[in-house]
Amino acid sequence: MRNKIHVILDPLRLRLASPDALTPMAILGLFAGIVASASVALFRFTQESLQIYFLGLPSPDNYSALPIEWRFWLPALGGIILGVAFMLIPQAARAVDVGFVIIRFHRSQADLPWPNAVVQFFSAVWGLLVGLSNGREGPGVHLGATAGSFLGHRLDLPQNSVRTLVGCGAAAAIAASFNTPLAAVILVLELIVRQYTLATFIPIILASSAGALFSTLFFGDNPAFNIQLYHSLALWEVPVLVLLGLVIGAFAATYIHITEVSIHRTWKWPV
Question: In the chain, how many domains are there?
Fold first, then answer.
């Protein structure tokens, strides 16, 4: 049976190996987007359900409703428990989040192991539940990219197709998590794929649209963040904004430098 499936898929693999295989790649990208969106919808549903039914929050992420002492002890004890859990997990499976996806995409032929995605799912759900500072975007990218990688490798597709499916999964995941399909496409193309061709762009935008559809069906059509702008920009404010950008950029560069130095000096420490 497996040999018959391989025989049926061989013409598709040969077609996808060419750079102009837009139609089959678009169909596969849409399917990868649906799978990735389903995984992220499950992740978000699990997180929000635990927040409401386990912590008793009146609405998801409404931690201001908790007593003030809970707002201290919940992330403190939750972080300790997460650290202990990571000490028990094999080191190879501890690598998670966007950085891991980028490294595997460019150095390991976009092969994303499923054990890392499982660790990402449960650790991120726990981290968000106890109020740690991790958001949904990192886990979403990891889960969605893993879905695309798994699909591509299970079908034994050529490497160019697997890389595109990873981008499709990541874009669909971001769109499903935040209902922002265009932002998802731009982020994935700029941060992960870094390849701007029609055969890459079309499947990714189709997958992102599928993610936005999932978000609308399961979580409503409200945007993740309501930003109301009533202020009209005056000319004298432009230099202030430029200065503000330089200051924020300096803070960001300092933060990245401190993080890299800390990781380098504490790499061999226990979690």
Answer: 1
